[in-house]
Specification:
Low-confidence stretches of chain B: none
Radius of gyration of chain A: 26 Å
Bound molecules: thiamine diphosphate, iron/sulfur cluster, magnesium ion
Largest sheet of chain B: 8 strands, mixed
Low-confidence stretches of chain A: 1-13
Number of strands of chain A: 23
Strand content of chain A: 15-25%
Mean pLDDT of chain A: 94
Distance between the termini of chain A: 54 Å
Distance between the termini of chain B: 57 Å
Oligomer: heterotetramer
Shape of chain B: globular
Number of helices of chain B: 10
Number of strands of chain B: 13
Largest interface: C-D, 89 and 74 residues
Chain lengths: 623, 346, 623, 346
């Protein structure tokens, strides 16, 4: 833990205009260091006491040719003096490092928005690469925006001149120049970034100093120049619960959640995976945690990964496997085996736009059907969904708890947006977390591998190596007590019923169903799940603020559904289900509760916009 | 349930489960089961630390019949399950039982990867050159032209050589045995067990129902010995019922040849088996009848570090308590928000 | 076509007692030739003009040790003077060739039923193998049955003595002795079986003659002996529509349906499969049809099989792949690709009991969820279900027609029961069948690989090798016109909507929704699908006969559902859905129509019994 | 859309699609694309009868850039798609483009089976020893100890040899080239195309982003020639920038050795490349630096009947009209029910 004291934010320039919330978007070439810039701005903003949410927007290509539109990388951050749950519909301020970045991102900027461009990159060569015919700085197409043209490249080179960098190295510092300017603009403290640069370029202090100089120059530029429509702002801190915080991405939180859960169960964890976008980042995080009883295994494919994870569970570890839609599809057969032999397993699906390869870098929620229904035979499976980066931690812990308590596979649905987005996260104290108990068995006397705990219906976990418990399990139907192969019709019916009852029984372990906003019985109840949480919640909160009779229920438990959900939905006037798919949760709710819930689908690979949601909810409220 | 009996030497019965064996009467699998059980006795295996893992097929029913831990998984994936087991608990002694369809058709890739990674286990491939359990379709090792329900005009696919594939995948231990040669099999299996890393043993097995007699030429009393050679490291390559044939290398053709060891023959030219030489192993593995003898015994053994050892050596398996977890969560930049809601970096 | 004239059945022995329907069950060791016996009895019965249905009941083991209970093979046939749709709940007559067969099958025989046993096999050795302690012929346990003990083994040996067979060969003829007896019992003509034996043992006439002699001896035994309670029966012919008939198993009908469909489309067919019980038998049938533009490809696994089939469709053939639950699970990822690139494909799933390996030789209908929902992303797929052996032909043709007309994968759900059961089938005249048109494209001018037919929404099928149409397709989201890679949000929404609309539109091609029994608006409407057809229909017909207000709708179209179904169900008093799973069609119906349909699930690996269904329906009628 | 222009010889432009190439600037894939396009020109390929099939990966984007028919399928399965295409229409000229992850990790089994079946196609494996598209994790060919996002402490897995695996699988044509050796590549590709059956070509390819320079030792001007040998059938095995090194067989060790070809050296001992000798091919494929040169060119070529030819030869592809179908349905026992409902056997 790095202990660094920074000035509490918000108590400098009192002349600044106060804003309650701001959305800033940085956009440039993949090589421009946009994500680093965004990361630093995020940290500074967190330290300034604001609540925030971010959205890193990578290009689909690994490294597209410099200056092309498909090589544009962007980072959006939304911060404010109150609870912030999405990266914001539209930026207030857009910083565009080159013509391609401007071309791709301008459509997001509302008229009148602040637009900062690096004039130095607006040249013919770059226009051609971006397939632009006229100079947008000249042709009047930016007249409706609050345009600030600065030759950032030139000013950066001036600022870093003392450090004797090459031209290329010098130009690379321009993101920090711009960051300095934006720090000034929104009253953030550059000190933590200075520290970060020094640590990062420990072995190359010249680079660190040059970047720091560039940042200071940008900051100073803001202070000294008074440009039309370009004033200084401040965003007061948000009322945040006391405690220790950090920023986390969903992938980090998921990795830590799994590790903490294993710790709570006092077990090893075996994480077996095959790389796939956007899931790989969880593997990358865990690969660095081999100090914490974690083995990561990069298998030859997704099938091998899930099988290795099941093998690990069989041998007494917590087996975890992780992939995205196409890879999860490949795991279906083996997941059926895990259901059948009743071993614990956690399966993380970082959803992406489908079908098939689809749009790997884009977000979607269209794997719910696959999770709940996608296996041969009656093979019920518990399914949980993550709603935000920090929530991934809690879901990972709960999923592991369910898997171990009930001796069953659990699937977690998260997505690329959550994996990569960051938010401030109140760090839990593990000492206060409840240990996880699994039905370990060591007693040879009277041991039967399929005798069940009468409450959870879990079978005992008799781990190879335990003296006297040698037994055989497998995918052919098992006798309800001995586990030996059985083709007996009555036994098959019994086992089918037990498997179903065990999974249904998981719902007994849930906490109370909480309303995310509003109260049961509202004229319109919105039921959401997964990463739409922020947008749906902000939209509903806004409408409640406007006096609308609306409520929001957000499901962590996709299967089995929460025991109280039916009640809440039946009391609702109308039920709307916004999803980034063609109505998958909707199908579950309709069949379970026979309520005429209505779809609100968006399948564009883009997150919902709060504005669109509000408009749609209003239509339903008026209908 | 079997309670370990550590004091006395175990017997085959100690490795026999209570499940009725349900292979067809006369199936070669019975003999292999016996040989494995005998090996378990010979190596003094601990039933509580031994795990048999299998895929699907007649062969794959094997684990049910051995009174150790057993996992009958899904078709073709046993190597992946076994890898997970071994990574999770390297102390377990893992035996993988598979068939030619299970290991070389659907499971070919997992076999390749468990071999190249060199995960410590014994892989026994029961090769009957047919899909037994699904009633007799041709398999990847079925001889070309074989008529089966799915190849009524005779199969067209060129068969795979299990041992050549294993060598191509980088296997460090490759051996071959035959169900009916009971005398040799336990020795080969014990060698496989002694080898640390993935040990691959192809066992020719007669499917009396769907492919009866395909290995008869190798096992028939008398004649059989003329068509097989049992390799021994450091020994000259001699075979035949009268031990009157040998193998030499034709340098010009870069190929093996059979020579007659008549009286006074020049045995100096005879090849001496070097089980660490991969080129030799490949040439031996490729030998096929009728002109060449089929190679049995340990074709190749050239140990290297085993995967699960290398992996676990880099890990810390100490108990992870709440304090360590708390520290983990607090690596990097953190800050504290006080009761008044203002932040302070930490 | 073999043209053989046989006496029309039913006009011999007028002294015989008339029965309207009979169920006969043959049971013996796997090596006793039970299935052959059943097959011959089926043919003779069909030629006698009865309607019939059969159920071959194989052991799970390949070849269990002789005389054991798990090596028992059975064959049940139900025939009658009216429409027969199931193999019957319980046999009227059981022929048991050994103690194990008696032990396993006796529980099915109602008290008072006719029980014929081969006394010759009731010895200590066989009791031990069957794990029987007392001789059931002696211990009174058969008192409640109409027991006929005959030393069939001995009598067979006597009958075949003239042919100089070995003891083993001689004993092998005993099934034909028994068949002869049963032929006499139920007034079947042995002549076709004689012919069959002669043809079968063309190269070994001695064996043919010995079997024929045994059969005649059995027949004569019946004629000459007058045993208590053992009379001769006759079952008059059923009123059968005029036409040419044969018996077919579901696997045969499926194979032929696919071949005929390919012929109707004037295309090659590529059938790619990996063996798996109970699907392999379709592969075996097609492997023998290479004369009819059929290529069968036994792939290295199910994934390769589906991919090869898609490749074949891409190259202009009709790609077909076939498997059972665990293998279909493996195909999920590739099926998503077929949905995405919009190529025709037929996928045949011969369902078996799950989850996981389950009980491969037992029947279940638990892959409906997997078929409709089991893919990543929104990947809608048409799903059809087969209801009886002969129906497999029609479903295969319709599935192929849909696949080609709409350029899309279609899944057929059938099962092991249908594949192996036989029924008389009216052979269609292919000349009267409608040709299948696919949207072939050859015009280079203005060609776009994703331009659509406005009616079907199908994209053109531009087959490699066609001059001037070279183009690229793939699993990444495609531009709605050019098919080039597109990450455009609006395009993704458009393509998602188009894919969904195209599949929904398939419902427009369905014929009218027919009631399988009863009328819309009945107090109880039973909705079935798949191989439960016969049992459900007989049960409903019986109850209608008893005056109950009940109706039966049987779905061929699982997805999309029939456009008229909602209407019918909403008019129903109560809706019950009998399924051999845990309520899968039920979930679809509830979510689609918001009707409180009730489950009637049986997951035992055994077909429904008519009696049980009737009891359950009565309960619902009274509720 | 490209309309075939049969009269004039085509140019590279005729094999270039309208899609912008989106590999990273400096990626070795560009050079391979050029070499393939040049080969298509050289062999006078017909774009309308040519199909490029690929799986997933950077390499697998290839089909989008060639103006023939193209199918970008799913990860690892391209050999199965290609087999289906070829069985469906043997007239098509099929090229399969794959990467080391696509072909050897998830797709290893399909590669093995397409090779053993010997389906006629060209298989080009772009081996950059890394997963490019998913941002740089180690692949089955990555050198042990490589640090990547998924192996921060260095990879533990022993790498596979693509060529040894191919030979182990029974491939009948195995060759190797390097992206940067543009001069040699089209010739190797043309040989692969000329070979009827499955032709396997491993192409070392530089991933400038995630694994830059792994093949530098082989391509660096001057030095590179000392570390590689371009094989030619029937020619002695000589290499080195001054053509002053050769390969000989050490008979005792049954292993290849490098000898210096100083003035007056005994070149009689030099091995002569025999591309039909599989043992030689295996030894050549196994050669690795720094002591041995890496073998390039055609390592093995030993044609056999190609699968799709054998399969289709047994089939009848004549049009199947209603009469033939009617006859098919009526094979075996049939009977006719008359208007009166009585049956008569037929
Ligand atoms: C996913 C899947 N595909 C196919 C099958 C069917 N199946 C079971 S065993 C087998 C092949 C058996 O052949 P082999 O491995 O040689 O074993 P053997 O029966 O000959 O011992 C097949 C195809 C299955 N169980 N699961
Ligand atoms: C089923 C599935 N699993 C994983 C992925 C993710 N994935 C795409 S390409 C790739 C590996 C690419 O490596 P390689 O084949 O060597 O190609 P390169 O990018 O290096 O050219 C992976 C793991 C996927 N698309 N589909
Ligand atoms: S089918 Fe063949 S391999 Fe299987 S049990 Fe019977 S004899 Fe053995
Ligand atoms: S990541 Fe590597 S292989 Fe992929 S395009 Fe970039 S340089 Fe080429
Ligand atoms: Mg086999
Ligand atoms: Mg690669």
């Amino acid at each position: 833990m790095t202990d660094l004291q920074v000035a509490t934010a918000g108590n400098t320039a009192s002349s600044r205009r106060k804003l309650d919330s701001v959305v800033v978007r940085f956009a440039g070439d993949s090589g421009d260091g946009i994500q680093v810039t965004g990361g630093q701005f995020t940290l500074a903003t967190a330290l300034a006491g604001n609540d925030l949410a971010t959205f890193p927007d990578y290009p689909a290509e690994i490294r597209a040719p410099v200056g092309t539109t498909f090589g544009v990388s962007a980072f959006q951050i939304h911060f404010g003096d109150r609870s912030v749950k999405t990266a914001g519909d539209a930026p207030d301020t857009l910083i565009a490092f080159n013509p391609a970045a401007l071309k791709v991102n301008l459509p997001r900027l509302p008229k009148g928005g602040l637009l900062i461009v690096d004039e130095g990159s607006f040249n013919e060569r770059n226009f051609k690469k971006a397939e632009i015919t006229a100079n947008p700085l000249e042709d009047g197409s930016l007249d409706d925006y609050n345009l600030i043209r600065i030759d950032i490249t030139k000013r950066t080179l001036e600022a870093v001149k003392p450090y004797g960098l090459s031209q290329k190295e010098g130009v690379r510092c321009k993101n920090f120049w711009a960051l300095g300017l934006v720090y000034w603009l929104y009253d953030r403290d550059p000190a933590p970034t200075e520290e970060w640069l020094k640590a990062k370029f420990r072995n190359n202090p010249k680079i660190a100093e040059a970047n720091i100089a560039a940042m200071h120059a940008g900051h100073a530029y803001g202070e000294t120049m008074e440009l039309d429509g370009f004033g200084a702002y401040t965003v007061p801190p948000a009322p945040i619960a006391p405690g220790q915080y950090r920023t986390v991405t969903g992938a980090e939180a998921m990795a830590w959640g799994l590790v903490v859960a294993a710790g709570l169960a006092d077990k090893e964890m075996m994480f077996a995976s095959y790389p796939i976008t956007p899931a790989s980042v969880i593997l990358h995080h865990l690969a660095r945690l081999s100090d914490y009883r974690v083995t990561t295994f990069q298998a030859e494919d997704e099938i091998a990964a899930v099988c290795a994870a099941i093998g690990a569970s069989y041998a007494g570890s917590i087996g975890v496997t992780s992939s995205s839609g196409p890879g999860i599809a490949l795991k279906g057969e083996a997941l059926g085996l895990a259901v059948a032999v009743e071993l614990p397993l956690v399966v993380v699906n970082s959803q992406r736009a489908g079908p098939s390869t689809g749009m790997p870098t884009k977000t979607e929620q269209a794997d719910l059907f696959q999770a709940v229904f996608g296996r041969n035979g009656d093979a019920p499976m518990a399914v949980l969904a993550v709603r935000s980066p920090g929530d991934a931690f809690d879901v990972a812990v709960e999923a592991t708890r369910i898997a171990l308590t009930y001796m069953t596979p659990v699937m977690i649905l998260t997505d690329g947006y959550i994996n990569n987005a960051a938010e401030p996260w109140k760090i839990p104290d593990v000492r206060n977390m409840v240990a996880i108990d699994a039905p370990y068995h060591t007693q040879a006397e009277g041991f039967h591998p399929f005798a069940r705990d009468p409450e959870t219906l879990a079978r005992p976990w008799a781990i190879p190596g335990t003296p006297g418990l040698a037994h055989r399990i497998g995918g052919i139907e098992r006798d309800a007590l001995t586990g030996n192969i059985s083709y007996d019709p009555a036994n098959h019916q019994k086992m089918t019923d037990l498997r179903a009852a065990k999974i249904r029984g998981i719902a007994n372990s849930y906490g109370p169903l909480e309303m995310a906003a509003g109260k049961p019985g509202a004229a319109l109840t919105v039921v959401g799940w997964g990463s739409t949480y922020g947008a749906v919640n902000e939209a509903v909160q806004d409408l409640i603020g406007e006096g609308a009779d609306i409520a929001h229920v957000h499901l962590r438990h996709i299967w089995p559904l929460h025991p109280d959900l039916g009640d809440v939905l039946r009391r609702a006037g109308r039920v709307v289900v916004p999803e980034m798919n063609n109505g998958q949760l909707l199908t579950l709710l309709r069949s379970e509760y026979l309520i005429d819930a209505r779809p609100l689908d968006q399948v564009t690979g883009q997150p919902f916009r709060i504005g669109n949601l509000k408009a749609a909810f209003r239509r339903h409220l008026e209908a | 349930m079997n309670i370990a009996t550590p004091v006395m030497k175990r017997t085959i019965k100690d490795f026999t489960s209570d499940q009725e064996v349900r292979w067809c009467p006369g199936c070669g699998d019975y003999a292999i089961l016996k040989a494995v059980q005998k090996t378990l006795v010979d190596i003094d295996a601990d039933p509580d630390r031994t795990v048999f893992v299998s895929g699907i097929g007649c062969a794959a029913r094997f684990p049910y019949y051995v009174s150790t831990y057993g996992f009958h998984t899904i078709h073709g994936r046993a190597p992946a399950f076994a890898t997970g087991i071994k990574l999770s608990n390297p102390e377990l002694d893992v035996w993988l039982i598979t068939g030619d369809g299970d290991a070389l058709s659907i499971g070919g890739n997992h076999l390749v990867h468990v071999l190249r990674r060199n995960v410590d286990m014994q892989i026994l491939l029961f090769n009957n050159e047919i899909y037994g359990l699904t009633k007799g379709q041709y398999s990847p090792t079925t001889q070309k032209g074989t008529r089966t329900p799915s190849s009524p005009q005779g199969s067209v696919d060129a068969p795979l050589s299990a041992t050549l594939l294993a060598l191509g995948a980088g296997a460090r231990f490759v051996a071959r045995g035959i169900d009916r040669l009971q005398k040799d099999l336990p020795g080969i299996l014990a060698r496989a067990h002694a080898h640390k890393g993935a040990s691959f043993v192809e066992i020719y097995q007669n499917c009396i129902i769907y492919n009866d007699g395909v290995f008869e030429g190798l096992t028939e009393k008398g004649i059989g010995e003329d068509h097989r050679i049992l390799l021994e490291h450091g020994k000259p390559m001699i075979f035949g019922r009268n031990r009157d044939k040998g193998l030499v290398l034709n340098h010009d053709r870069l190929a093996l040849e059979v020579v007659d060891l008549g009286e006074g023959a020049d045995t100096g030219r005879l090849l001496v088996h070097d089980e660490t030489n991969k080129t030799m192993a490949s040439m031996l593995a490729a030998m096929e009848g009728p002109d060449m003898p089929v190679a049995l015994g340990v074709l190749y053994c050239n140990p290297d570090a085993s995967y699960e050892q290398e992996v676990t050596a880099r890990e810390n398996h100490d108990r992870v308590d709440a304090d360590r977890l708390n520290a983990m969560l607090r690596q990097g930049r953190c800050w504290t928000v006080g009761e008044d809601g203002t932040g302070s970096g930490g």
